[in-house]
Design brief:
single chain, alpha+beta, Purple Acid Phosphatase, chain A, domain 2, five-stranded mixed β-sheet, globular
Length: about 200
């Protein structure tokens, strides 16, 4: 029943879908997708996050969309645990195309927990990680930002009409004197989505 400008939801695992590949958008496998089912378009990458609870996620988005319709409040999910940087636009299931985006999600990186390259033993500045980031964004059009490499933390500055998201990065996690810099700033505006 609240009439606040934002519903901020702190979240332990990524809320937005993370699809490995969008089958219907890939001409090499679209015939396989069509043969399996006309409803199959996405393959989730990690069922241990909200992708393993798609019905519950859809139900929550419907509740948030109804609340948005009644009060104008937008949801903002603040998430961690995946050790990488992400920013997503969130839409409710069956939301009219002209309704504008419902909300956003900011996912912070880890300060020291291993990132993707470190878990896989891939050296820094390799060509695979940037390619993986491009593939992820192509399969997830709601993903505005992803970075699988850097360590750091995040914060959000919230006003009534927008949320300004900041990703800060530390240059060397083993050096207590290592500088921290504000590397990425994105703004999500009500009714528009990401404007930067």
């Amino acid at each position: 029943s609240s009439h606040v400008a934002w519903n901020v939801l702190c979240n332990s695992v990524m809320f937005a879908p993370l699809n490995l590949v969008a089958l219907n958008n890939n001409p090499d496998v679209s015939s396989v997708s069509n043969a399996l089912s006309s409803n199959i378009n996405n393959l989730p990458l990690n069922g241990d996050q909200w992708d393993g609870y798609t019905t519950e996620r859809a139900n929550l988005l419907q509740v948030l969309e109804k609340h948005h319709h009644n009060t104008g409040a937008n949801p903002l999910f603040l998430t961690g645990d995946i050790h990488t940087e992400w920013a997503h636009t969130l839409d409710a299931p069956n939301q009219p195309a002209d309704a504008g985006p419902l909300g956003a999600e900011l996912v912070c990186s880890s300060v020291s927990a291993p990132n993707v390259d470190e878990i896989l033993g891939i050296p820094p500045n390799n060509p695979l990680t940037p390619a993986a980031q491009q593939i992820i964004q192509a399969a997830n059009p709601h993903c505005r930002h992803v970075n699988l490499v850097h360590h750091g933390y995040s914060y959000v500055t919230i006003s009534r009409e927008e949320a300004e998201m900041h990703w800060l990065r530390v240059s060397a996690i083993g050096d207590p004197q290592a500088p921290v810099s504000d590397k990425i700033t994105l703004t999500w505006r009500k009714g528009q989505g990401f404007t930067s």
